[in-house]
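Handout, section B. The chain below has 408 residues.
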Amino acid sequence: MKSGEDQLKNGTYCYRYTDLDGKRYAVYSPWLREVDRKRARGDGESLREKEKEIEEDRRKGRSSADKRRTSLNDQFEHFMSGKRGLKETTELSYRTLYDNHIRDSLGRRNVSEIRFSDVRNHYNRLIQDKSLSIGSVDHVNTVLYSVFALAVRDNLIDSNPTEGVMKEIKLENHYEKKARIALSIPEQAAFIDFVKDSRFSYLLPMFTVFLGTGMRVGELTGLQWHDLNFKKRTISIERTMNYYKRDGEKCVFHIGTPKSKAGIRTIPMLPEVKSAFLKERQKQMMLGGCNACVDGYADFVFTTTNGTPYTKASVDYTINCIIRAYNKQETGEAEKECREPLLLPKFSVHNLRHTFITRFCENETNLKVIQEIAGHADIATTMNIYNKATAEAKQDSFKNLEGKIKIS
């Protein structure tokens, strides 16, 4: 045996060494050599393989003991402790994803022991055993990639084992990210007209504001009456309202800042939007005003009949009810009139924001103006929507030329 190596009475092999901190440590393995491990088809590393890693760590000036003591859970907490200025909702999202899908499984293992294949197999188990969507696994990977990236920078590992995993999984599953839909003009009109004359008409002012401003849900629900300047016809976006758990408590409303600095903005008030606000004000006064006070903020513009703010989940649920009711009615009317029905696709409240931005792109060429009104931090986000909207507009424009110009 080599210097530092020993075999214990139970047959286990041991290697004792002095680490960079001057302290003595020991590593163990059932096999002395790699060939012995392969012959036994064992998991883990042979003693000589561990020795090789220790020598490599010493050559790179890295503490092998620290590497072996650091679990993925430890590294995650180290990563989170360094994220200064992280929005509370973002931190909650990171922790929820990690706790639900990593902590009690892959998280228990040492950072240095986790390989590309371990991450890939774990993600596949999430998809197959937990029925997690590939999109959700992608969110988990976003968090895990950052945790391992910090481990690389901290010199605990040489490479990030999450690198390229999602690309491989998406290829294997023929995954294509669903494009965020915007309602077409006929669909948008059908949606509004149906709401106007249905039992859902009490939400018409809110839907009008969504489609006339492109506000995010939290921005709209956090809107206060003093944010509206009816003389100048402007809307000031200064905060966002979210509904989530904090420290294990039940879900409650919280006030926060907009998604980014670009989210703090002023939006011009269209005449239809101004009218919608005034109708909502009249309805709210008849019901006794806004009873809610969230983190010291009150006098919110949009509230339920109980005077409390709306949640995104409740608005999305109502939209689904509207879609089902409309499509059922439209299908029946189309059959009677012997025509194809104009059915609404499944969409969420965020698609109303996307619809506004698409309409805006169809009628405005200044990308900077569109970016500022939409509150996009990255101009690339604006350009993606603009390019798609203008491409469709070009197709429609050429359809109108058919048969109208002599070209052959």
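Note. The first helix runs from residue 34 to 40. Compare this with the example in section A.
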